[in-house]
Amino acid sequence: MANLILPPDWRLPEAAATDEAAWLDRRAFIKSLGLGAIAAGAAPAALTGCTSGPLSGSPLPDSYPYALPAFQRSDALRIPQAADITEERVAASYNNYYEFTTEKDRVWVRAKGFQPTPWSVEVKGECEAPRTFDLDDLLRLPHEERVYRFRCVEAWSMVVPWVGFPLRALLAKVKPTSRAKYVRLITLHDDLRYPGAAEQPWYPWPYFEALTMAEASHELTMLATGIYGHPLPNQHGAPVRLVVPWKYGYKNIKAIVRIELVEARPRTFWSQLAEDEYDFDGNVRPDIPHPRWSQATDRMVPTGERVPTPMYNGYAAQVAGLYGS
């Protein structure tokens, strides 16, 4: 019998991307912080990002403003409790992206006019060769498709085929120094292009997140420029976003424009607002409940099926050693 070469055991089959249907809304959390009082004079539509009403049209764009390079599709080895890949139209119409709106099913509507090109990502800080990469520079890096389980802190999940490259490939180009202990990532700040940000000034925009250098350098951590075999639609964070599959969705920052290598642990967007609810690590831990709900199970989108949440979202074998457990 011929020898079988198995792909790394984090890989999910291409037949493993999910549909979404049930969710726990963070608007209740916003109210619990008293942030609604800050916007006391705002119209109700501003508080939700847009007015409700029937939706029409497709959440998928007719064309894309940039093209992906050639990439290899991963052969897929299931992780425990992997489900089928989520239908693309479902994943495209169910998104958390507060810069556009807090209404998950309407992000794609408000994101339609967003222009993700031209684009650049500045990388600076504790490194020997700080540099600004334009989108073409990023697209020249070797790309591949990876099917990952995606888990939101709100206890819903899907399975998504991302296209991109390891974050460590980009970091290697700027030569981090020994003082680089953390990687801080910042998204675009533009109220004209982000109506939800303009309508919700009580948030500390722009969105910002961070990883330890060990997390950022892990082979699973990637920067995605594509999804489902084509460039990212705007609602997914075009043109470049972070994907860290063992962490909750809030760690997976979208539309990145700056990366800073720093020595001291930085604050992050949600941990700055409520660290007891959204900690710096943001690891998927079914054994640690959120203060307001259990994390032991999650709802698959769009079926609503309740399934046990695996430790570190199914990637414990690869990443538990980063945390001594």
Could you describe the 3D structure shown?
This protein has 325 residues and is an alpha+beta fold. It has one domain: Oxidoreductase, molybdopterin-binding domain (Sulfite Oxidase, Chain A, domain 2). It is 18% helix and 21% strand. Strands 1, 4, 5, 8, 9, 10, 12 and 13 form an 8-stranded mixed β-sheet that branches. Strand 4 and strand 5 form a beta hairpin.
Amount of beta strand: 15-25%
Task: State the major sheet.
Answer: 8 strands, mixed
Low-confidence stretches: 1-7, 14-24, 36-51, 76-81
Shape: globular
Question: What is the fold named in CATH at topology level?
Answer: Sulfite Oxidase, Chain A, domain 2
Q: For the record, give the distance between the C-alpha atoms at the N and C termini, rounded to a whole number.
A: 38 Å
Number of strands: 13
**Could you say what the CATH architecture is?**
Alpha-Beta Complex
Rg is: 19 Å
Structural class: alpha+beta
Reading the helices and strands in chain order gives: HHHEHHEEHEEHEHEHEEEEHEEH
Mean pLDDT: 86
Fraction in helix: 10-25%
Quickly count the domains: 1
List the total number of helices: 11
CATH class: Alpha Beta
Q: Could you name the CATH homologous superfamily?
A: Oxidoreductase, molybdopterin-binding domain
